[in-house]
């Protein structure tokens, strides 16, 4: 899994509450077994008209925000089903960090497994951030996980909190296997102890 230390990139504002996983990636793309190519279908119904043409008013079709790596969303982002494909589609598009007041619980676990940083900030702060990036014409902002700060184009810096274990997993790029391997010695000792008990 890719490590997350610091990202400086355009941020795309998405002022829609209760965006569910079906909006993020429609069910018809759920047959994919890997995330490769799923980014093309991220927010499919919002990004494209029925004839397949891009909707020019959707933020990820903006010339600058096509390269967005940060999404500033609204409350209850990625609620709904347990599909990991939502996290896959976001990361395959290039999104590394999502800032929102709240997230769907299952999505939050899937995001962590895929190296996607979720930052929870109050509604008013998120609304202000969306206004700021629009005013700056989508100039890059910087998210620093080591320092736990967001630096805006204006130079203003905001601090954010994150669960220490989530922070470590993202900084070290640890997937489920990597986290297990960190405890290899303890597992081996446990197994040795078990074998000793059996032979007694």
TrEMBL record:
Residues 1-123 form the Aconitase A/isopropylmalate dehydratase small subunit swivel domain. Keywords: Amino-acid biosynthesis, Branched-chain amino acid biosynthesis, Leucine biosynthesis, Lyase. Its EC number is 4.2.1.33. InterPro entries: 3-IsopropMal_deHydase_ssu, Aconitase/3IPM_dehydase_swvl, AconitaseA/IPMdHydase_ssu_swvl, IPMI_Swivel, LeuD. It catalyses: (2R,3S)-3-isopropylmalate = (2S)-2-isopropylmalate. GO terms for cellular component: 3-isopropylmalate dehydratase complex. Pathway: Amino-acid biosynthesis; L-leucine biosynthesis; L-leucine from 3-methyl-2-oxobutanoate: step 2/4. It is an enzyme of class 4 (lyase). The keyword Amino-acid biosynthesis applies. This is 3-isopropylmalate dehydratase small subunit. It comes from Sphingopyxis indica.
């Amino acid at each position: 899994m890719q490590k997350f230390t610091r990202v400086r990139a355009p941020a795309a504002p998405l002022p829609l509450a209760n965006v569910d996983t079906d909006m993020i990636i429609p069910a018809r793309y759920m047959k994919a077994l890997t995330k490769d190519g799923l980014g093309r279908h991220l927010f499919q119904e919002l990004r494209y008209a029925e004839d397949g043409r891009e909707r020019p008013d959707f933020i990820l079709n903006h010339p600058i925000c096509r390269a967005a790596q940060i999404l500033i969303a609204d409350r209850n982002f990625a609620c709904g089903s347990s599909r990991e494909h939502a996290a896959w589609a976001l990361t395959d598009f290039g999104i590394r960090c999502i800032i929102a007041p709240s997230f769907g619980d299952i999505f939050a676990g899937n995001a962590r497994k895929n190296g996607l940083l979720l930052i929870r900030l109050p509604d008013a702060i998120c609304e202000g951030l969306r206004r700021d990036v629009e005013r700056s014409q989508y100039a890059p902002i910087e998210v620093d996980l080591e320092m736990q700060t967001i630096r805006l184009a204006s130079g203003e810096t905001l601090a954010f909190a994150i669960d220490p274990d989530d922070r470590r997993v993202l900084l070290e790029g640890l997937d489920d296997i990597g986290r297990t391997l960190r405890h290899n010695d303890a597992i081996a000792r446990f197994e040795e102890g078990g074998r000793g008990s059996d032979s007694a």
